[in-house]
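Translate sequence into structure tokens.
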Amino acid sequence: MSALHTTYVEGIALWLERLPGWEQARAAIRGEAGTPAGPAPRPAPTLLAPTERRRAPDTVAIALEVASRACTAAGRDPASLCSVFASTHGDLAISDYLCETLAATPTLLSPTKFHNSVHNAAAGYWTIGNTCVQPSTALTAFRHTFASGLLEAFMQVQCEQAPALFVAYDMPSRGPMATVTLSRGLIGAALVLAPEPGERTLARLDWRTAHGTYEASAPAGALAEPSAGNPMAQGMALFEALARERAERVTLGLGARLALAVELAPYNRV
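Result follows.
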């Protein structure tokens, strides 16, 4: 087991099709409101110009929306934050389109679609839209993507002693790809993390990596059913714990015998 480190949460954002916002999700988790039966329309991030907003893929739209909301909640200038964008599959709809078009009519391949197919598309839109020149990372670690992205953000905060933005998102699989890569629903989640407590600190996270067998935490409350089948469901137990605002432990998988153990505690200002 590694040494214990501490990171503070300043901003939280969450978007699921049936809980399109952290306030709605938090209320549902705490039993203060129900979960709507129908899906919400996909977000339309104001960071993008109207034309770009209309043609942006779902992954870009969801990632930019939650990133902006988390920064607003934290009172942080997006241009000042380094960022980590984590997605298990990237944009599966565009991947399906590319494969289909290349197989049938390769000369009709859309340059715009191809441009949006790269795994760091959301990170690119984010940094360009905010004129941000801070470091940005885009990563995937298959079924361990959420925990790996969160660990990367933790490490950047720890090493640089500066706040960082963590964004995680995944979308439904479509077409023939759905037979080999199953993913349901559209989920985006974001946290603004800091090395020290401040005026907007919401929670304290004490974390370490742990080797050996482990049982990964899974959402057991209001996020369990809406997130089922999406790779980002692996991180929803953390958001449920943040909503409950009490001391809890969450274990997130980093590998077959490696986990990220996080002890949460609400931050009480003196």
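Note: DSSP finds nine helices and eight strands in the chain.
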